[in-house]
Amino acid sequence: MNLTRWSARLPGTQRRAAARTDTTVSPDRRGEGSVPAARVEQLTDEAPPVPAVDDLPVRDVLDRVPALVALVYGPDHRLAYVNDAYVAAFGMRDLGERAREALPELDEPGLFPLLDQVQRSGRPRTLKSRKAPDGRSYTFTCTPVTEGDHGGGDRGVLVFATDVTDHAEAAARLRASERRQRETAVTLQRSLLPQELEEPDDLRVAATYHPGGTEAAVGGDWYDVITLGGGRTALVIGDVMGRGVRAAAVMGQLRTAVRAYARLDLPPHEVLQLLDGLATEIDANQIATCVYAIHDPNEGRLVHASAGHLPILVRDEHGTVQRADEPTGPPLGTGGWVHTSGSISLTPGSTAVLYTDGLVERRDEDLDEGIAALERALSGATGTPQVICDRLVRSAGVTPDHDDDVAVLVLQHPARTGADAELFRNAALELLGGVEAAPRARAFASGVLTSWRFPTDLHDLGVLATSELVANSLQHGTPPMRLRLRRTDRRLIIEVTDGDDHLPRRRRAEPGDESGRGIAIVATIATNWGSRRTPGGGKAVWCEFVLPKP
Description:
The protein has helices spanning 3-7, 13-23, 27-31, 37-43, 58-64, 84-90, 99-102, 112-121, 165-192, 245-262, 268-282, 367-379, 385-395, 419-422, 437-451, 456-476, 518-525, and strands spanning 68-73, 78-82, 125-131, 137-146, 155-163, 204-210, 220-229, 232-240, 288-296, 301-307, 312-315, 321-324, 328-329, 342-345, 350-355, 406-413, 425-430, 482-487, 491-498, 528-533, 539-546. The chain is elongated and about 120 Å long. 34% of the residues lie in helices and 26% in strands. The protein is an alpha+beta fold. The protein has 17 helices and 21 strands.
């Protein structure tokens, strides 16, 4: 095989030949005033002229380049040439042999199918950073070359392999570092999310979290379910605008703060107001969106406040989906905004969905289109909250390669019938008049607890707690006053409301004091107790008893 003939059609060869023809000095003029070379060497200190690249034989050029070069020809890729660098890397090769036998080291990088493609198409192809049997990484470029002036001869392929081992190893180290950082962020993110959701008496809840794909750094999505006592439940979902460990750490601080503020039993907008100031202190350059909602089974509504977050969706028992658009304030950390609360109906048989933007936001779609698609998916979603969670995630096309984090929180207010409904009962009494309201309240509580078939010890504790709460309200509160008894499948709840917004506190009564022991007695005999201000003014004081397991 004549390498010179094959190199004649290499890219640029004809242009260089033409350039040499244009700049060649004619023999006649070369003879005029010319100086013999020997005399030039004697009369000048200049270095001898360096020959042009085009004057060098192709084989000399290829033998001197550090890259690996091989030339094959014909339909079965017969070996025509390998350069010195190739021989140094893989040893001597027999010319004329088929490439599969002569160049077995090209099989592992997958070059043989590429040779066929280049020979058929006549177009160059490249394989980047492929590892060869010698343990080093190469980028292979296969270029078609044709013997003959008009492409009628045998077609060959020039294989040019550049050693990119250092770059490949650096890239591998970078990927490993990014993978470790992502794993750290995901581990931190998951450890800061609730490992098990609290299970309210009146709601069924489920949540799911999907971190972004392997090429995306994990974000700061979070959710939580917090039982407030007295049958009420707080639900929260948020998204820290940022990625990586920092976003996950900020998320953890906000989630912890939400749980602390929730224990104060404040309205949703007041919780967001506190979070807004805290977010500014944590990191003024990092903001977050959040929705905080409270469900009260006695009201059949979801009271909520939003800081720049997407609207809650509620599907009623007939499949109609309603969007809670208002009110929405700016994200947490912006400051200078007074948040307000709104409400949306959540009657028995309804399902509510709280979610982050990764579920509905797409680069090629408007955000409203994503929310509308989620509404359509929710309208036809039935089953348990976990089933609905999974269905919404699938309908949104969330895959392991999704480019954003996704958090979804689904809650259902089940419609109970039959024997199940007997375990969830309510009874209320308006406390009218003066001191005579106390014995009426005790008699009412005794009758209700008897009808609910509570054991004697729980019956007596419930009547005593009712008496103390009512007496406290009559002494320190103002009308209107109301007593409410409620049972679930797990607990008995006693609540007294009045028109005064001064919250009671537990204190130690002195031996000579004639009052001040009511709340202390309630706190002693009850499983839990608390108080909160009501939206219309006034307060509610409650206590609860855990029911014995059947």
